[in-house]
Amino acid sequence: MARIVAADDDDSMELNTISSVHDSTLGQLLKNVSDVRKMAIGDETPVHESLNRDDDYDGYMRTVPFVLSFDNLTYNVSIRRKLEFRNLFPRGSTTEDPEIAQTVRPNTKTLLNNISGETRDGEIMAVLGASGSGKSTLIDALANRIAKGSLKGTVKLNGETLQSRMLKVISAYVMQDDLLFPMLTVEETLMFAAEFRLPRSLPKSKKKLRVQALIDQLGIRNAAKTIIGDEGHRGISGGERRRVSIGIDIIHDPILLFLDEPTSGLDSTSAFMVVKVLKRIAQSGSIVIMSIHQPSHRVLGLLDRLIFLSRGHTVYSGSPASLPRFFSEFGSPIPENENRTEFALDLIRELEVSAGGTRGLVEFNKKWQEMKKQSNRQPPLTPPSSPYPNLTLKEAIAASISRGKLVSGGESVANGGTTATSTTLAVPEFANPMWMEIKTLSKRSMLNSRRQPELFGIRVASVVITGFILATVFWRLDNSPKGVQERLGFFAFAMSTMFYTCADALPVFLQERYIFMRETAYNAYRRSSYVLSHAIVSIPSLIFLSLAFAATTYWAVGLDGGPMGLLFYCLIILAAFWSGSSFVTFLSGVVPSVMLGYIIVVAILAYFLLFSGFFINRNRIPDYWIWFHYLSLVKYPYEAVLQNEFSDATKCFVRGVQIFDNTPLGELPEVMKLKLLGSVSKSLGVTISSSTCLTTGADILKNQGIVQLSKWNCLFITVAFGFFFRILFYFTLLLGSKNKRR
């Protein structure tokens, strides 16, 4: 039997006596155990109210206590030696200042140094400190965003080490920047998040209800039908954007919620509204941990635990109510009517620039924590590492799901028995099958693109204008030797145009990169689903562009081949667009910025055109560059359209005296050309008249060195290049979006 009395706090209430442990319900026992643990460690935050009334019982049973503890977290990073001119030459003196030597020699910098703490469901833990103190690093460490092996220490939930796969399911991480699709409304944004994070087994009607409830919880009902907006489109306010960003990551009602400076850049009112939303989320049974720069007095009243950091060290850990006593005992009492956190942060900054630094404050915090534990020590009801010894972490999560927590894809499975029923947790890696992810991603991408028709309109206009210019320049080419040469120039420019116009696909992924990284970091969908969706969405626009260019140029230039020739012409243009789009998409996954991407794309495409076989015949390319000829994306569509144009063996392109065209003899009178032709005939012993065919399409292809592949093989290779670059794009996403510190 035990009696628990709550601390004096506005939000705390007196707990009833636990008359009999065996008669208590599981939910009541677990919550009371959590409260006993609070008192045992000397925590001054409010304990929970015991609910004995029948009308409160159901609401109480929906919560299961969770305790997140972290011990001795240490994280070091290597600092590379800076290359300076003065370091290239040896100095005459061998003595060195230790501080100077430390700055130039390879060493490590400690970002976190033995950081420990604990928080539980229903609470908001805030990490404070100046810039560079380690706030974001600590949040990343708790959220498993630091590579395994680089971080020392332990992070446990209910006394059990968190596995990466489990953490991705039960947690969410809200980045500092608001990464949203600008042309989607608030409601659509949250609905797509629900489609990704909530399991397929949940009916769409319930997903919509969850979204509507979340909109009310976030306090953005008035902005539900408003687009997010960007620099060119007016949308919701900054505070509303931040709340939408939070809503995306809590759509599945996570048990753990990590936020990196959610109030950054907001005014005091908007910041208060954001933290107020986080308080409601915590009270729903979640653990909220966030970094914050300098909270206002009102925001401070919503926080339950504070950790102050200074250059990776803990200088204070406890409740906001204990701040005055802590600094008073340290010898720097907080003045009346002054913001506690502002005073604390100012004092820490002053100490950081002083001779002794914050070493004294760090040591005092350690002693103060020990004194507080000793003065408040009570016989623990359960081991400190576990709120309830008979309930494993998976069973606790499963119980939480069964009481209303919409953990992504998690399903609690009851195993019946003769005397008892145990609950286990089935945790799939992703909430939905691949085809559902592709469908949802494609729908979102098309909806966002449809609301920006000017982007596709500009792309169509560039293709049509280019086709119109080519059509008017190469209008109705004849079958003379000059016409043949002009056809070669038209095909080379036209095929290279297909690739250059695909460069506008470069910013698409670069703009979505961080949205993709945020969503895939916690398994909202598979990377392969994104790659397939990205390809599927691009195909309709490529088909339209191909038809537009073919219709603009085919008849105007006077190309041959009839209906089948036109069909192949359209197919090879589509294949070139597909290959070029895939190549640019792959580069967008490699380059860090749009400007650098454009420079690389233009340079590589210029090399492709150079080695395509138009400027220099394949047989004339040096052996040490011939490999680039076969890698050229322009080579294969260029050879394909040439074979499509000159494949008719009965069609003649040079007859009789036309052999002298494109030579100095071409300026001679017609009579003189006929005499020269007769002389050539006698010399060769062959009769050559003015109507004798001297060059067919096969001869032109042979002269161009196009004898290795058929036009269909060229088409297939071009399409295969497109798939190859899509696969490379997938691997760049797989390797380049780990989203973890080294």
What would a concise description of this structure say?
This protein is α/β, with parallel strands linked by helices and 742 residues long.
Secondary structure layout:
Layout (H helix, E strand, L loop, with lengths): L25 H15 L13 H8 L5 E13 L18 H7 L2 E14 L3 E5 L6 H8 L8 E7 L2 E2 L2 H7 E4 L11 H12 L6 H15 L19 H12 L6 E5 L7 H16 L3 E5 L5 H4 L4 E6 L2 E6 L4 H8 L9 H13 L6 H17 L17 H10 L8 E5 L6 E5 L7 H17 L2 H21 L7 H20 L5 H16 L5 H31 L4 H27 L5 H17 L15 H6 L3 H12 L5 E4 L14 H15 L8 E4 H7 L7 H26 L6
Parallel strand pairs: 3-8, 3-9, 6-7, 7-8
Antiparallel strand pairs: 1-2, 1-4, 4-5, 9-10, 11-12, 13-14
Key features of this structure:
4-stranded antiparallel sheet, 742 residues, disordered N terminus, alpha/beta, single chain
Give an overview in words.
The protein has helices at 26-40, 54-61, 98-104, 135-142, 164-170, 186-197, 204-218, 238-249, 268-283, 297-300, 323-330, 340-352, 359-375, 393-402, 434-450, 453-473, 481-500, 506-521, 527-557, 562-588, 594-610, 626-631, 635-646, 670-684, 697-703, 711-736, and strands spanning 67-79, 107-120, 124-128, 151-157, 160-161, 171-174, 256-260, 287-291, 305-310, 313-318, 411-415, 422-426, 652-655, 693-696. The protein is of the alpha/beta class and 742 residues long. α17 (481-500) packs parallel to α20 (562-588).
Strand order of the largest sheet: 6-7-8-3-9-10
The number of domains: 3
Question: What is the first-to-last residue Cα distance?
Answer: 50 Å
Largest sheet: 6 strands, mixed
Low-confidence stretches: 1-62, 92-105, 378-388, 416-423
Strand content: 5-15%
Number of helices: 26
CATH C-level name of the largest domain? Alpha Beta
Computed Rg: 36 Å
Overall mean pLDDT: 80
CATH H-level name of the largest domain... which superfamily? P-loop containing nucleotide triphosphate hydrolases
What is the 3D form? elongated
What is the CATH topology assignment of the largest domain?
Rossmann fold
Family: Belongs to the ABC transporter superfamily. ABCG family. Eye pigment precursor importer (TC 3.A.1.204) subfamily.
Pfam families: ABC2_membrane, ABC_tran
Domain ABC transporter: 83-336
Organism: Capsella rubella
